[in-house]
Amino acid sequence: MLERLLRKKTVVPDSSLADRITDVKSRNIPAHVAIIMDGNGRWANRRNLPRVAGHHEGMKTVRKITRIANDLGIQVLTLYAFSTENWKRPKLEIDFLMKLPGEFLSTYLPELIEQNVKVEMIGNSDLLPKHTKKAIEKAMKETAHNDGLVLNFAMNYGSRLEIAETVKDIVALVADGAIAVDDIDESLISSNLMTAHLPEPDLLIRTSGEVRLSNFMLWQLAYAEFSFTDVLWPDFDEACMLNAIEEFQMRNRRFGSVEGEKNV
Ligand code: IPE
Ligand code: IPE
Ligand code: MG
What we know:
By secondary structure, the protein is α/β, with parallel strands linked by helices.
């Protein structure tokens, strides 16, 4: 009996999740949440499974977190799925990671369409295998007219590469005489990044206990609130997402000023 009660206590019933969602929604919801989805390999290692099993399990978390982000009225959810540095991994793992967008989208695209989610991507798609690029492009095309949550995958994304490319584009504008050197300011740089059309992230979440950015959105995160959790990505669930947003709602964002008000 006691054992049953204890077991019951650890399960978060749907109704309590719904109450928390209502509560969180009554306060300030971050417009853009960016997540460094980390810890898939360790999740698998702990179960004596190959690393790729962790990546596969992580896909289910992507589905869960997309749904709750949509329910909460978050405008943009950027998910760091593959970095420009991840090419250093074993070929077998890279091949598996490159197949995941296709598998994820072939399973969940109808659901994303039904939820009015718009799929987008940042990163250099030139180096992606054809099948990966095709799957993402198909999803982008089929959701292009949706105006709900933007589900933005950072795929072969590296912030330094993005900034270097932006510098090249701006230099070309100057060389063509389209702009003068004095026209180069912060907003011009922002509007030439891959995220030009998106609001800057308000909240960055990184799972798995690592406390670093790993070349993710270095420019865009200048004033984001950071939330780090030891939970591994495959174990990150709706309750973890609500924890991060509640933490965000308690923060006092001052943006360099002194008149910070509680962020609620
Ligand atoms: C994150 O999990 C997924 C990607 C980087 C693609 P990891 O594969 O980095 O998992 P850990 O950090 O080795 O546990
Ligand atoms: C960052 O995770 C990249 C993604 C989540 C896609 P990594 O696991 O590659 O980062 P490091 O190597 O720990 O810095
Ligand atoms: Mg990692």
